[in-house]
Amino acid sequence: MNTYQQIVLASRPQGHVSPDNFRLESVPVPSVVEGQVLVRNHFLSLDPYMRMRMEDIKSYAAPQALNAVMVGGTAGEVVESKNPKFKPGDKVVGMFGWAEMGLSDGAGLKKVDTAQIPLSAYLGSVGMPGMTAWYGLTQIIAPKAGETVVVSAASGAVGSVVGQLAKARGCRAVGIAGGPEKCAYVVNELGFDDCIDYKAGNLKADLAAATPDGIDGVFENVGGEILDACVARMNPFGRIALCGLIAGYDGEPMVLNNLRTLLTMRLTVRGFIVSEHPELWPQGLTELGQMVAAGKLKFRESIAEGLAAAPEAFIGMLKGKNFGKQLVKLI
């Protein structure tokens, strides 16, 4: 194979993301020089943060450059190595982006063990999404046994882990998801105590019924009316881990009508970026890995086939069409 495929950002979105914002290219397979590793990617991770990177605005990270490979986490196999730390056949995770192959000097590349944990899980429950869930729950919400934790986008890659970690800590876990199928999965498979279908049109009443003792912690992935409804149910000194605001990623305005509750209930609201806390990753990933290996942390994946399918899969994920972690299978 003399060439491989990659997808670059061709233009910045005007409102909703369009397939025209991306361009599929064929490029030569690079030569490997001393100290380098060539990786064939098996899976590409698609995540909501990518939508914000596509904008040329001030944020926690530099914008995705135009005509450059789209950012993204990858899991694959070393096919050629001139680096003593890696050998052909090693399974690795890295950040090669929307590409079938990647060349690295070894920095940021991590060997993983697939004996008990599937390779794809290192992009989900035992990767950045899992760590995001672990950090927001344990470090910001810091729930005590018996408290009620509400998770939006509860069937997704992050939300599904949050609820299971909360249950393991003796909490009441309540999910919010879109549609009866996702809610049934959240309760019956993941073990949440309840799940509210926000598409059913009874968000406030259903949330009140599911949280009779109020809400102590909110893990927020969506924002908008979902966050507003949760804030209204918060107990004194409640904690909100602000992970994502996907409801506003395409430019729709978000209003918080219950802003006064932040004061009257003395709430803590904290946004976070999990990559800024590398010192905690070993602790979090150890717990997550042990739970997955023991079958105590369940997860689901939506898998698109082939790199060319990535743009449509990404657009679908932003609209909530994925079920669990959204991946692209590249081989």
Automatic annotation (TrEMBL):
Domain Enoyl reductase (ER): 17-328
Keywords: Oxidoreductase
CDD domains: PGDH (cd05288)
Single GO term (MF): oxidoreductase activity, acting on the CH-CH group of donors, NAD or NADP as acceptor
Name of the protein: NADP-dependent oxidoreductase
A Pfam family per the record: ADH_N_2
Gene source species: Noviherbaspirillum pedocola
InterPro entries documented for this protein: ADH-like_C (IPR013149), ADH_N_2 (IPR041694), ER (IPR020843), GroES-like_sf (IPR011032), MDR_fam (IPR045010), NAD(P)-bd_dom_sf (IPR036291)
